[in-house]
Backbone:
């Protein structure tokens, strides 16, 4: 069963507070998002399996451990998810990156798919789906549903900030998917934005409106 993991490490919380500040510009916002993504990836990968091998140090031979599980795929939901990719790749440089393009219909708030490009061996990889904001949960749920239709498994969702509504939607639609967040905020407003949140992550990331 999937579980909600709230990553309350002091460095994550400090950097997230700076990202929330309306006076933080796009350059610093991008840098902070990349840094938080790397810190979160450290926790997301905590349960990766290991195997024992033998190596020879300059002193002697020894038994030690290396990763033994499936390879990793990182799947950002366009466009804000792009801001988290490099942070995760800093820790897992061999990971392959796919992209899922979804936008939220402003009237219905439901996701509309417009692009999908996955690694050719996505079915054989553990997939980390990334998107800074888990608001209604519609986009994340749709993206993960699309991956499952492609026979992908071992999926984890990593978001910066979540609303209770988005968590509830994910737990209902995909109870097998672990959710990792840095904070759970109060609620959604009438426009589907997280309160207090940090505004539109994509706009702040890329300097658009």
Residues:
């Amino acid at each position: 069963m999937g579980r909600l993991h709230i990553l309350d490490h002091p460095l994550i919380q400090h950097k997230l507070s700076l990202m929330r500040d309306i006076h933080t510009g796009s350059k610093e916002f991008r840098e902070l998002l990349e840094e938080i993504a790397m810190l979160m990836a450290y926790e997301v990968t905590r349960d990766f399996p290991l195997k024992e091998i033998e190596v020879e140090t300059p002193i002697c031979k020894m038994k030690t451990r290396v990763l033994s599980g499936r390879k990793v795929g990182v799947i950002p939901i366009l466009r804000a998810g792009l801001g988290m990719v490099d942070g995760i790749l800093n820790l897992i440089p061999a990971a392959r990156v796919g992209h899922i393009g979804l936008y939220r219909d402003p009237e219905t708030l439901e996701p509309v798919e417009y692009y999908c490009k996955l690694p050719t061996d996505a079915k054989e990889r553990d997939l980390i789906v990334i998107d800074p904001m888990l608001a209604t949960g519609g986009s994340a749920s749709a993206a993960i549903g699309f991956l499952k239709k492609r026979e992908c498994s071992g999926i984890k969702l990593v978001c910066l900030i979540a609303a209770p509504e988005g968590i509830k939607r994910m737990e209902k639609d995909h109870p097998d998917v672990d959710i990792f967040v840095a904070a759970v905020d109060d609620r959604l407003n009438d426009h589907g934005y997280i309160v207090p949140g940090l505004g539109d992550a994509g706009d702040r990331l890329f300097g658009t409106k």
In short: The first helix runs from residue 10 to 20. The mean pLDDT is 94. The CA atoms of residues 143 and 149 lie 10 Å apart.
